Amino acid sequence: IGLMSVTVFPVRLLLLSFLMLLAWPFAFTASLGRSQFVIEPQSWWRRFIDLCLRVIMRAMWFCGGFHWIKVKGERAAASEVPILTVAPHSSYFDAIPVTMTMCSIVTNLENRSIPVWGTLISYIRPVFVFRADQDSRRKTVEEIKRRAQSGGKWPQVTYFYCSFTTSLHSFSGAFIPGLPVQPVVLRYPNKLDTVTWTWQGPGAFKILWLTLCQPHNPMEIEYLPIYTPSNEEKENPALFANNVRKLMARYVCVCASVRMCLQSVICHNRLKAGITDKVLEDQARIARKLQGDKLGLQDFAQFLKLPVTATLTQVHSLFDKLGDGQIDIRHYVIALSTIHRPSKSMETLKLAFKMYESEVREEILQEDLATILEIMLGVKNMELSGLFLDTGKITYDDFDRFIEQHPHYFDFKDHPHAKSCNGQNHSKDD
């Protein structure tokens, strides 16, 4: 990465800056004299500018390493589907599908004042949310309804959601009009995740630096089939949102998104102060005794020794996979440990093994290990059959030896035999 930082990174950064500045006069010119509330027929020169902007922005992302963007499915026309629901919103690079389609978005009013980028945002005529205005939510919903019911005259409105869990519930503006929506799933199937942003993770510049240092940054955009609401869903936007959430969750691994959303909830509500290694050990000990017994919201509150609040309800719902109000507390402890000590993944792994081990033998089942790795690494349906004997069980020591022999198979950087980016072993003196 050191070599890429002094060779590829500055060149890419310069090209990105140049292309963004090149796009600015086009967006500024096309925005002159155009109303944000009235749609008018698009003249030939505005259509030409729109085409130029798409080409420039695609060239910009290409220079950033997003050489080939795989698009699955087909985006429906605005007259057919006025609203796109996109998830998970986990990266600054989620703007890529917007620049490819020039759809409108829902964004904070403050973003309009961002130099250069704010002009590009204004060009696509977004629905601005002014959080200082107490009536902003109602106005935003009314504007979305007005555009959605225009019969395709307005560009499609793109709604971004941070995950496939509570975000769809917390603000159901996209579903209030009761019109068909098209779910869109974003994926970054890169071996080393440099694009995902979290509250405790690296800042914007570090993400940009690491991403631009990658030789290639793969991305997938999948347009799912149009979801047409039933009469019941039209009357109940929360039900509509929940059913769309379940549909989208089938197409991706939800665990990474759950961890990100859990981290956001913890940081926003200052819950992290009460989390220590000892607390995690105590919770794991109780979870082991439960042996997979599910906990409802009240039991979950007793487990954490906290009152039932909106925040606690939100955290509980993150792990309610089946939607039956019951969770496996072991999943919560593993995710919490992963967030609390991201540089100590082997300790989290050992903690997880203890929770899943039987009382008689220190072994866990293959499906249990798959669940642990799915939560910790965000990798679903990992092939593990080669690790197991005929018994279908494995001990922590056996798995630790496997990691030692295959250090690149799993991303446990704190393992004594893990390799760093330059191929050298980590040590305390590094």
TrEMBL record:
One GO CC annotation: membrane
Keyword Glycosyltransferase: no
Any GO MF annotation of the entry: 1-acylglycerophosphocholine O-acyltransferase activity
A biological process term (GO) from this entry: phospholipid biosynthetic process
Keywords: Acyltransferase, Lipid biosynthesis, Lipid metabolism, Membrane, Phospholipid biosynthesis, Phospholipid metabolism, Transferase, Transmembrane, Transmembrane helix
Location(s) in or outside the cell: Membrane
Similarity annotation: Belongs to the 1-acyl-sn-glycerol-3-phosphate acyltransferase family.
Protein name: Lysophosphatidylcholine acyltransferase 1
Species lineage: Eukaryota, Metazoa, Chordata, Craniata, Vertebrata
